[in-house]
Automatic annotation (TrEMBL):
<keyword id="KW-0378">Hydrolase</keyword>
<dbReference type="InterPro" id="IPR000868">
    <property type="entry name" value="Isochorismatase-like_dom"/>
</dbReference>
<feature type="domain" description="Isochorismatase-like">
    <location>
        <begin position="10"/>
        <end position="178"/>
    </location>
</feature>
<dbReference type="InterPro" id="IPR050272">
    <property type="entry name" value="Isochorismatase-like_hydrls"/>
</dbReference>
<dbReference type="InterPro" id="IPR036380">
    <property type="entry name" value="Isochorismatase-like_sf"/>
</dbReference>
<protein>
    <submittedName>
        <fullName>Isochorismatase family protein</fullName>
    </submittedName>
</protein>
<dbReference type="Pfam" id="PF00857">
    <property type="entry name" value="Isochorismatase"/>
</dbReference>
């Protein structure tokens, strides 16, 4: 299903588009197109005076996993948001998380509710991890959820496709950046 509507108070939430993740060699082919689409959406949401939330990750959830976590060294710029997203733009909300999802142990829900937000549009990386975890939690918190299909990416194409075609349609709606921008322009009229 394609995206059908945007609520009057919709927020644009961008997951983990930061220096350290964008610099992972396996992520490099994904980053440029999805960042370009995320930047277009962020600019349009700001122009419509709607919230833009940029989320970065600085840690990981504790606990054992079968698949080891990457042990790459992290310099002080690892968590810096990508400049194309204009992280210093007036009114931009910042959330730092320690787990995959942006709602767990953060003030994201409270900040969205304070702003009267009823819907979120999601973008970011990785589709099957941070984006999907955030979409699931948003759905559970009662938000209408939309995923910008050309503004998300995953280093595992099978997981990416599974999230887009199997998971997200059960949590909300999906649409391209252009479809979302068209709805945003129609809503602003």
């Amino acid at each position: 299903m394609t995206v059908t509507t945007l609520d009057p108070r919709t927020a644009f939430v961008v997951i983990d588009l930061q220096q350290g993740i964008a610099g992972i060699p396996a992520a490099a082919p994904l980053v440029a197109p999805l960042v370009a689409n995320a930047a277009r959406l962020a600019d349009a949401f700001r122009a419509a005076d709607l919230p833009v939330v940029l989320v970065n990750v600085t840690g990981g959830a504790p606990g054992r996993t079968e698949r080891p976590r990457p042990a790459s060294p992290r310099d002080e710029s690892w968590a810096d948001l990508l400049p194309e997203l204009h992280p210093d733009a007036e009114g931009t909300l910042h959330v730092t998380k320690q787990t995959w999802g942006a709602f767990h142990s953060t003030d994201l829900d409270a900040r969205l509710r304070d702003a009267g937000v009823t819907q979120i549009v999601l973008a970011g990386i990785a589709t099957s991890a941070g984006v999907e975890s955030t979409a699931r939690a948003a759905h559970e918190h009662g938000y209408n959820v939309t995923v910008a299909t050309d503004a998300v990416g995953d280093m595992d194409p099978v997981n990416h496709e599974h999230s887009l075609t199997r998971v997200f349609p059960r949590l909300g709606e999906t649409g391209t950046s252009d479809e979302i921008l068209d709805l945003l322009a129609a809503t602003a009229r």
